Amino acid sequence: MTHLLPLKVEYLLMFGIALFWTIAYILIIYKGFKDQSCGMPLAAICANITWEFLLTFIMPFHPIQQIITLVWFLLDCIILLQFLYYSKRTYPKRTLHISVFSLMVIAFLLQYGMAVEFHDTMGLYSAFGINLLMSIFFIKMLLTKDLQGQSLSIAYFKMIGTLCASILCYSFYPQSLLLTMMYILIFILDVVYTILIYNKSITIVHKSAIYIE
Asked: Do the beta carbons of residue 89 and residue 69 sit within 8 Å?
């Protein structure tokens, strides 16, 4: 592992990752309660929870990291509970529970296998793989559910938090083509998602103004 950036910059980026992603999770929870809808797709929830569980309880590599991933794990558990609660009107309870359990098992096994296969003790490959899927799923969710459970603030904090992680990890592993490709793809998708959210918000404001007039 190399260090292309000064230590102070690395710490600043680490702080940014922890701060911006924590705020994004809190905003997702808040918007979910406000709209009575879950602001994260089920596959992304299960992938996040299993990654955080793995890095917190099975493969922790630093005490501060362990605390941060524990906080994220607890926040994601709340998001999962939101999904289960607000989806019970749409899907049978048994189907929901089987789906969640199956996705949890699959996600955990895949991420543990990747960590062992690639000697990835920091879970970077699975983390950015999950982030890439999240960026795709968030766009899909926006196209199908409009702004239910989503907001421009969530889009900004998710994008900035991930950008901090991408810059930091590139400074550690500049030779990794796969990771670099994921950094770029995630950033492009996050920009697209933010623009779509902004356009949706503007459209809703205009419609509301016309309705009031």
From this structure: no
Q: How far apart are CA 17 and CA 128, in angstroms?
A: 13
* In the chain, alpha helices (H): 7-35, 42-53, 63-87, 93-117, 124-145, 152-172, 177-212
Long-range CB pairs of 104-113 (<8 Å, 24+ gap) are 104/46, 104/49, 104/50, 107/46, 107/47, 107/49, 107/50, 107/51, 108/50, 108/53, 108/54, 111/47, 111/50, 111/51, 111/54, 112/54, 112/58
User: Would you state the structure tokens that stand for residue 57, as one six-digit string?
Assistant: 């309880």
Say what the pTM is.
0.92
Q: What is the pLDDT of residues 180-210, one digit of tens each?
A: 999 999 999 999 999 999 998 877 654 554 4
Query: Residues 125, 114: contact at Cβ < 8 Å?
Result: yes
DSSP annotation of 37 reads: S
Rounded CA gap, 211 and 208, in Å? Answer: 5
Which residue type does 114 have?
M
For helices 7-35 and 63-87, what crossing angle results, to 10°?
A: 20
